[in-house]
Amino acid sequence: MPVRACVLRGPGTNCDGETVFALERAGAACELVHLSRLSESPAMLGSFGILVLPGGFTYGDDVAAGKVFAVKLIARLHEPLRAFVGRGGLVVGICNGFQILVKSGFLPGPEYGGPGEAATLTFNGSGRFEDRWVCLRVEDCRAAFLKPLAGRIVAFPVAHGEGRFVARDRAALDRIESDRLVTFRYVGPGGEPDPEYPFDPNGSMNHIAGICDATGRVLGLMPHPERHVLPWQHPRWTREGLDRPADGADFFAALVREAKVS
Fold first, then answer.
1. Cα(5)–Cα(13) distance, rounded to whole angstroms?
2. 31 is catalytic
3. Catalytic choice (226, 228, 234, 258)
4. Dist CA 119 CA 122 (whole Å)
């Protein structure tokens, strides 16, 4: 029986179709669900093993990126989502989904304070919207499904105006690092550490592109793995060939495998 995955959308979500496609290619049975529908019937979560919050510009980013969706998530689904993770469910937030998870307090998690206390995602250091391909190193972190990919350099595109990861202070940043919550880090095109702009497209502290919570079951990242699930989606495929799977395909395959085990 395939793993069932829920892709949760709201007004302004625009990457839900690509995310469904990526999950289905990885072998999941996927359902696209509106936030209002899940809020009315939170027991629906019991039938899923994976919940993905895709990218987009929910509620027009009118207050701040992901903030309105986050407020609704806290008010309507906080306890059901905690129970979902507690029973082994996996939650992934991509781009706007990552912003939502941070601003609702699901990342880095309650052990690190309330929503936005330990860290946030704010305006890019460049002062502009960044739409480009980046290279990332998959870190040795608490997210079990990423272990087979740890140390690998992957390429995903970014498309955001508020993607700069900022911790409250040095102590909060050091704790996030020492607790192995960092899942992805921006690197140079050859995997070089400490990249400058544009290889770190937003100026994130410690070049952090994604984090997980202490359970390793809630994860968010700013780049878009769902936009690199076919080899020819990469802009250099004609020069570098199609001799290995796309990085995003490996990401989603690992996610679905972990959900089958859980």
1. 17
2. no
3. 226
4. 10
Please pick, among 160, 207, 224, 234, the residue that the annotation labels catalytic.
Answer: 224
Structure tokens that stand for 43 in this block? 């027991």
Does the active-site annotation cover 226?
Answer: yes
Tens digit of each residue's pLDDT (9 = 90 or more) over 135-148: 999 999 999 999 99
Please say if 30 is a catalytic residue.
Answer: no
pLDDT tens figures, 98-136? 999 999 999 999 999 888 899 999 999 999 999 999 999
> Based on the number of CB atoms within 10 Å of its own CB, is 128 exposed (0-12), middle (13-18) or buried (19 or more)?
exposed
What's at 20, amino acid-wise? V
The pTM of this model reads 0.97
Q: Kindly list the structural domains of the chain, giving each domain's residue range(s) and its CATH number in brackets, ordered by start.
A: 4-261 (3.40.50.880)
**Pick the catalytic residue: 15, 95, 135, 212?**
95
Would you say 98 and 210 are in contact if contact means Cβ atoms under 8 Å apart?
yes
Question: For the chain, what's the residue count?
Answer: 262
**Please, are residues 112 and 175 in contact by the beta-carbon 8 Å criterion?**
yes
